[in-house]
Write a structure and sequence with these properties.
This protein is mainly alpha-helical and 452 residues long. It has 20 helices and four strands. The strands form two sheets. The protein has a two-stranded antiparallel ribbon with strand order 1-2. Strands 3-4 form a two-stranded antiparallel sheet. The chain is elongated and about 100 Å long.
Length: 452
């Protein structure tokens, strides 16, 4: 089902073939590192590189290596081993066996001195690094879409709501600018997560370098552009992976927030914006009139899945001594699925923002629904400016506000007719209290800070 919610670029990163290719590249670099320090013959390392590159070449069916490795491991779908055929039940050994079938005598130096997670964890960090780059690119596309719509609607007035209730005027552009500021923080967090997972290792069993020269690790990490760990056990410590997954969850939370806002503003009683509804699209199998915010609802639902991955990612941090295997099965699900889902959510929300239908007339109608009531604070502050006690001003305005709310009267008319207020404020001063443009003039500040 995950294929339904994925785009090919991210899916390719996490496909078994790409993971196995990364394993092979790390193995080849380990051999080259050993040759550099003089522990194995350079000719053997060169032969491994030559034959390894042949397996990695575009014209080679690397899928056959994957299939063979899965059969040896005993995990190939539908594969039934022949009687007496050994089943290795170890993913890396199965892979190395499959690769070795395509090598010559140099195979004796494949996986020399290192342990499984020297290879697998280094490769996994490469996959997370690639995912961070792709997610950052997708997030920047969304940011540009939001930026364009924020500029378009900088001065499009609408009512701001708190607790779901009309509060005071804002502009739709300001709402989008707030989205953009949050998304920019998400992009910064992706960069931080990339730095956290951009690490490799080749320190041998339990991380003591007992069977590996540290210079081999330096060679491997240097060639792959990975940072050297200050110290490791037999694995890369899982706080790095937890950092990655929590970053995905926070980003998904932002996308859910934006999508939820669209869903609320698309409610029939509000209908200030609407996600794209394209020709030929159908909203309901029963009701021809329906135009539902289905994409934003999907994004909201998928955010719940991504968020659920945080707890297992944090629990993976606790390992028995130098290494156990409790993290492995978890990461085979949460890392690829979380990456694929957030990438999908980013791209779908970008489509929504670019095609978002905005109804400024409806925004104006809703802004006027309470007949000036939402400007009550301006009247109160103007009275304070003219010397009235703050609490007295509040009670005076609130009494008129409640009268307007309960009777449906125009709040502006009630204010103008009130003798206490008219004794303090002129007609021009009262008009200024109800001037939306005056209220919204400092929206410019946020735009300047955002560089919009």
């Amino acid at each position: 089902m995950i294929e339904r919610y994925s785009y090919p670029e991210m899916r390719r990163i996490w496909e078994p073939a790409n993971r196995y290719r990364k394993w092979l590249e790390v193995e080849l670099l380990v051999a080259e590192g050993w040759a550099e320090v003089g522990r194995i013959p350079r000719e053997a390392a060169a032969a491994l590189r030559r034959n390894g590159d042949r397996l990695l070449a575009r014209d080679f069916d690397f899928g056959a290596i994957v299939q063979r490795a899965l059969e040896l491991e005993g995990e190939a779908p539908g594969f039934v081993p022949k009687p007496g055929q050994p089943v290795i039940r170890h993913d890396l050994i199965a892979f190395l066996t499959a690769v070795s079938e395509h090598l010559g005598e140099e195979r004796r130096y494949l996986h020399f001195g290192v342990t499984s997670y020297d290879i697998e964890d280094t490769a996994l960090c490469l996959l997370m690094r690639e995912s961070c780059d792709l997610l950052k690119e997708a997030a920047e596309h969304l940011a540009e879409a939001i930026r364009a719509r924020a500029r378009e609607h900088k001065w499009t007035p609408m009512i701001g709501r708190t607790h779901g209730v009309h509060a005071e005027p804002i502009t739709f552009g300001l709402k989008l600018a707030v989205w953009l500021a949050e998304l920019e923080r998400d992009i910064g967090r992706l960069s931080q997560a990339r730095e956290s997972v951009n690490v490799g290792m080749a320190s041998g069993p339990v991380g003591s370098y007992g069977t590996v020269d540290p210079r081999v690790e330096e060679y491997v990490c240097g060639r792959l552009g990975l940072s050297l760990p200050k110290a490791t056990s037999q694995i890369v410590q899982r706080d790095r992976h937890a950092h990655y997954v929590t970053t995905l969850a926070i980003l998904a939370g932002s996308l859910e927030r934006f999508a939820t806002e669209v869903r609320n503003l698309q409610r029939t009683e509000i209908l200030e914006v609407e996600e794209p509804f394209r020709k030929g699209q159908r909203g309901s199998s029963a009701m021809p009139h329906k135009r539902n915010p289905m994409t934003c609802e999907r994004i909201t639902g998928l955010a719940r899945i991504v968020r659920s991955y945080v707890t297992p990612a944090l629990e993976n941090m606790a390992q028995w001594h130098e290494r156990d295997l409790t993290n492995s099965s978890v990461e085979r699900i949460i890392l690829p699925d979380g990456s694929v889902l957030v990438d999908y959510m980013l791209r779908k929300l970008t489509d929504v923002v670019r095609g978002l239908v905005v109804y400024p007339d409806h925004m104006r109608e809703n802004l006027e629904r309470l007949k000036g009531l939402v400007m009550s604070e301006h009247v109160m502050l103007a009275l304070v400016d003219r010397g009235m006690d703050k609490d007295e001003a509040y009670q005076t305005v609130q009494a008129l506000a409640m009268q307007a709310f309960e009777s449906g009267a125009d709040f502006r008319d009630l204010v103008r007719a009130d003798e206490t207020i008219s004794a303090k404020l002129s007609e021009d001063e009262l008009a200024a209290c109800f001037d939306y443009a005056r209220h919204l003039r400092r929206v410019e500040v946020a735009y300047e800070r955002m560089g919009l």
